[in-house]
Amino acid sequence: MGKDEVKVLSMWASPFCTRVKIALAEKGVAYEEILENDLFGDKSKLLLESNPVHKQVPVLLHNDKPIVESTNIITYIDQVWPSPPLMPACAYERSRTRFWADFIDRKVFSAGRGIWMGKEEEQVEESKKEFLDALMYLDGTLGDKDYFSGDSFGMVDILLIGLTSWFSAFEKYGNFKVEDHYPKLSAWIKRCYARQTVSESIIDSDKVCDLVAMVRQMNGLE
Ligand SMILES: N[C@@H](CCC(=O)N[C@@H](CS)C(=O)NCC(=O)O)C(=O)O
Question: Which of 21, 127, 139, 154 is 20 to 30 A from 62 (CA-CA)?
Fold first, then answer.
């Protein structure tokens, strides 16, 4: 095969795109980022053609072939560029990784959205409980380890850390601090942010808070 051409269709505030960027950085794969300007209005022809079902970013274009859905993209990246591996070697640990990947995909971001988009106090409290409960399980499985699979940064770390740039917004509108509830998880976030692959890809949480405030305003929430 000739030289790999890798492109990421992306949007600056998307935590799902952050995941893909971190995975590529971990693998040392150079890529071109193509930013969508108006994800909620005028989507690009390239995005609509590459992800006709969901019409969402991220999309990885590997030699012009589209791969969609961030967790699926990272699995693909790990198979095409195997070093360093993001999945554990043992079948049992791999199955646990897939379980937590699915758990994060189902629970974390949607609960967080419920906090900052909640109309009634009750809805916000319900989402806050859902979010903190999800983190409780994640904190439990992390335990005293440096990373979710032990000593090395891997799949579960990437999937969760990508979402954390939105946590300040969840904290602001839910009136809580993750650190007060889960110091180990909080230390893990700092540990991950100290990695260059994460710090160069992660979104500025202040900018996320500004965006969230704007979306709330547009929806008559403030
Ligand atoms: N499950 C998807 C979620 C991707 C997603 O929600 N992308 C958002 C940006 S953060 C998007 O493209 N939204 C535009 C839309 O839904 O029309 C993944 O993991 O890739």
Answer: 154
